Amino acid sequence: MSDRDDLEIMLRTHVPLITVCTYEEARFVGLIRQLAQRLDLPLGRWTVTDGLDSLHGEATYNPRELRLVGENPVDTEARSTAEPDYALRVIRNAKKPGIYLLLDFHPFLHDPVHVRLIKEIAQAHDVHGQKLVFVSHDLTLPAELSRFAAGFSLSLPGSNQIGRIITEESAIWATKNPGENVRVDRQAVSALMSNLTGLTNTDARRLVRAAIRNDGAITAADVPEVVAAKRQLIGQDGLLAFEYDTAHLSDVGGFANLKRWLATRQAQFTTPNDSGDRPKGVLLLGVQGGGKSLAAKAIAGIWQVPLLRLDFGVLYNKFFGETERNMREALQTAEVMAPCVLWCDEIEKGISTGDYDSGTSRRLLATLLTWMAENDKRVFIVATANDVTALPPELMRKGRLDEVFFVDLPELAVRREIFAIHLGKRQLDPSAFDLDALAAASEGFTGAEIEQAVVAARYAANARDTVADTALVREELMNTKPLSVIRYEDLARLRGWAEGRTVRA
Fold first, then answer.
1. In angstroms, what CA-CA distances link 307 with 255, 264, 276?
2. How many CB atoms lie within 10 A of CB 313?
3. From start to end of 368-468, where are the E strands?
């Protein structure tokens, strides 16, 4: 159904309070104004600047005629309906059916007087037929009001609507530039439409207008600019971090099974299809420093899609319900950026439960699991974890994540490969080093520990005014106690659990 149909149904129901969380206020006001005319319902509007006024039909209130208890006529006339409490009293005392738009009322929603007045209007809805519609970019009703309310969301434009926006903006530009038409590259238009998916009507139109304005054309050069603007636009809330430093599989040593797994599923994920069958995600479980984060970056790099990192520390909020709301908004942002990779780093720290949790982590987990089961967008989850004991079993169920890979300590051949990668990154010729000897000397080292040995060898070489060589790298290896020694028991338990339960990465 369309937005118009959905809103009409909501207006016909016996729901006294409607919340609309949107940045497209003008679009919603236009929509409800059309419906009010169609349904022949009086429509009033409140703003903190202008107070109450009528948008459609006869005014359902007259402040001068509504004398409140304890007020004399002079006091009543002196008061303004721009005052929230007075406006609500006027609406309540009018006792006439109508729709009241309360624009940007959210700062006043937690005042006990306002809550009581709204509750009284809601309780009398069946008698008087008054509906309050709260419209703002940020809305959270108090618990005592939420039971009277229903939420409405404006839908995001689909490909056909985005196509119409491009056509309309092209026509507008041609009107302002007589004798000229917008030059169009069909492939660029297709890419532009794909990247505008998930934005609001207003934002999509603004970005299309910006793409056309400079040169009167839509070309391939416009696409990166639109993508960058989209990233900036969506990333304003800070719930998701855009990782621009993605990697390639050539930067990742080992992970042979994961690489093969990804290769067989790349086309199914990156190419839109109607079957609904697409890779959902993987869990990378293993020792710290084993390359899990680098693998997440590599997946986004080889699939050439944005990488978004979910920061659980940013999600958590001291106010009840806000953490789950933050999670929902972050997941919605990921859907907007689809196709993309959503990287949940050290996921166990965000959803593990404990004695002092107060249920927040459980509710957060429930929100995430529901989304994972129902999500039909091209969002590929890469969850990384170090502590399997803190992971809820329902997270690893097939259907939510496709596979669980265990990232163990690198074997001899892989360690040799890792040395070559990190030496090459630092303009050191790998062929000048005895890679076999270094690989043998680094048994039990993670990829991160090998990298630090190379870095430390360069520091030592600079201090001695010489060039890093095999001996210096070996010296640094000998001076390091790897995590496999320090945390031997933990690693043994992790390996024991992973045996037969996971796929070796």
1. 19, 20, 22
2. 7
3. 379-385, 403-407
pLDDT at 240: 74
Composition of the chain by helix, strand, coil, percent to 5: 50, 15, 35
At residue 495, does pLDDT exceed 90? no
Mean pLDDT over 145-160 rounds to 85
Is residue 234 within 8 A of residue 204, CB to CB? The reply is no
Residue 277 DSSP SS3: coil
- Which region holds residue 149: left if phi is over 0, alpha if psi is between -120 and 50, else beta? beta
Average pLDDT over residues 407-414: 89
Residue 437 has pLDDT above 70, yes or no: yes
Are the C-beta atoms of residues 354 and 316 closer than 8 Å to each other?
no
Per-residue pLDDT reduced to its tens digit, 258-283: 888 888 888 888 776 555 678 888 99
pTM above 0.85, yes or no: no
Mean pLDDT over residues 104-109, rounded? 93
Residue 317's pLDDT band, with cuts at 50, 70 and 90, is low
State the greatest distance between any 2 C-alpha atoms of the chain, in Å, as a whole number.
96
How is domain 3-152 classified at the architecture level of CATH?
Answer: 3-Layer(aba) Sandwich (3.40)
Residue with tokens 């070996």: 474
Nearest Cα residue to 350 out of 321, 384, 300: 384
pLDDT of 69 reads: 43
User: 36-45, 106-115, 138-147, 272-281: lowest mean pLDDT where?
Assistant: 272-281
Among 199, 196, 169, residue whose Cα is nearest residue 184: 169
Q: In this structure, which long-range contacts are made by residues 115-120, counting pairs with CB atoms below 8 Å and at least 24 apart in sequence?
A: 115/142, 115/144, 115/145, 117/85, 117/88, 117/89, 117/92, 118/17, 118/88, 118/145, 119/144, 119/145, 119/148, 120/92
Per CATH, domain 412-484 is 3.30.470.30 = no
Reading the block at residue 60, the tokens are: 């359902």
Beta pairing, strands 217-218 & 281-286:
unpaired
Distance CA 354, CA 341 (A): 29
Residue 85 buriedness (CB in 10 A; 0-12 / 13-18 / 19+): middle
Once rounded to an integer, what is the mean pLDDT over residues 451-463?
91
User: Residue 20: enclosing H or E segment and its boundaries?
Assistant: strand 17-21
List, in sequence order, every beta strand (DSSP E) within 292-386: 307-310, 340-344, 379-385
pLDDT-derived band at 318 (thresholds 50, 70, 90) equals: very low
How far is C-alpha 290 from the geometric centre of its chain's CA atoms? 27
Domain covering 242-407 assigned CATH 2.40.50.580 in the classification:
no
41 forms beta bridges with none
Tokens (6 digits) for 468: 């890093």
Q: Is 50 helix (H, G, I), strand (E, B) or coil?
A: coil
Whose CA is closest to 344, among 359, 321, 327?
327
For residue 270, what are the contacts with CB-CB under 8 A and spacing of at least 6?
303, 304, 305, 339, 378
